[in-house]
Amino acid sequence: MLALPNSASSPAGWRWTPVNTGSRSATSSPPSVPRVLPDIERWLRMCSPTCRSRRQAVGKDILTGLAGESGTGVRLATGIDVSNSDHDPPDWFALIPDVRRCAPDELPPGYRNGHHYTVPLIDMPTHLAYLARRLELAGGDITIGRVDSFGDASRLAPVIINCTGLGARALVDDREVFPIRGQHVVVRNPGLTDFVEVDTGDSLDLIAIYPHGDRVVFGGTADPHVWSRYPDPVATTKILERCSRVEPRLKDVEVLEVRVGLRPTRSAIRLTAELGPAGAVIVHNYGHGGAGVSLSWGCAASVAELVERGVSI
Ligand SMILES: Cc1cc2nc3c(=O)[nH]c(=O)nc-3n(C[C@H](O)[C@H](O)[C@H](O)COP(=O)(O)OP(=O)(O)OC[C@H]3O[C@@H](n4cnc5c(N)ncnc54)[C@H](O)[C@@H]3O)c2cc1C
């Protein structure tokens, strides 16, 4: 596994769902996704099945393709997204060919409606290791170290992609970036195959259950402006209680691990280019909140485009 220090990507980020991203029902408005939506809509358009450009393969399509290869950490998973409220289906359902309403016997006790569909589900430790291998096979080297200024970085490379997430607060003094803390519990899989996502309304206590092979990752929480990376035992107990009410097979399971991550959130994703020291091209790409995995390939395509085009400011 590629263990990145202080990263949101290592401990979390599981499911392709652009407006939901593992934190809310398909039909609600999540706190962990940047609130200013034009960027999100642009990345969504990039994933659209009707898109005819080279971006056709971006986003969901790429993850769907990776699900067919072994060792990528991506699989196509079926599951349900359930709610007690009546909402219009979100726009991104248009990207999912097999979405359908749940039959009553598919709903957990106490829930009135839901949808059943298939999306890429991503085991992040495996996926990050796959991405690192892929980069190395393409001729890249990975050196892990702290960058304190773009002056330092420009001595190493003429193009700098700034994907520092919350680190952008210090590196580029961007006070708009803030954490939304998330906590997940990892247990041995008692036999689950399908994901479950529950609409918890405005509550910061989320319910999402993701089976990943012999483990199940579930939670969670969404605490804005909380910086602690330490597991909160009270939150763990509550996660176990509310998730096992929805999926009784999670009752009394052995907890293997508790994971905490800070979603690097911003009112809008910053994806811009500028000229830096010594003529270096700097492309900023951070602030993806709870949607960074879903948006990763779409945003990467935009970054590549900015680098190819060069900076004109
Ligand atoms: C609990 C939880 C659940 C989530 N679920 C989903 C989901 O279901 N679907 C989804 O799409 N997304 C999900 N996300 C969000 C997703 O994980 C993030 O949006 C994504 O990982 C952000 O990636 P990033 O590379 O921008 O930031 P990070 O992964 O945080 O990476 C930033 C990296 O930059 C490094 N860095 C910072 N400053 C410096 C510096 N000065 N010098 C050198 N290095 C530096 C950091 O150490 C870190 O390694 C979830 C997040 C959490 C916490």
From TrEMBL:
Gene3D superfamilies, per database record: D-Amino Acid Oxidase, subunit A, domain 2
Catalytic activity field: a D-alpha-amino acid + O2 + H2O = a 2-oxocarboxylate + H2O2 + NH4(+)
GO molecular function per UniProt: D-amino-acid oxidase activity; FAD binding
Polar residues bias spans: 1-10, 18-30
GO biological process: D-amino acid catabolic process
EC id: 1.4.3.3
Cofactor(s) named in the record: FAD
Keyword terms, alphabetized: FAD, Flavoprotein, Oxidoreductase
Enzyme's top EC category: oxidoreductase
GO cellular component: cytoplasm
FAD dependent oxidoreductase domain: residues covered: 97-306
Pfam family, one: DAO
Region (Disordered): 1-33
PANTHER family with a match to the protein in the record: D-AMINO ACID OXIDASE, D-ASPARTATE OXIDASE
Family: Belongs to the DAMOX/DASOX family.
UniProt protein name: D-amino-acid oxidase
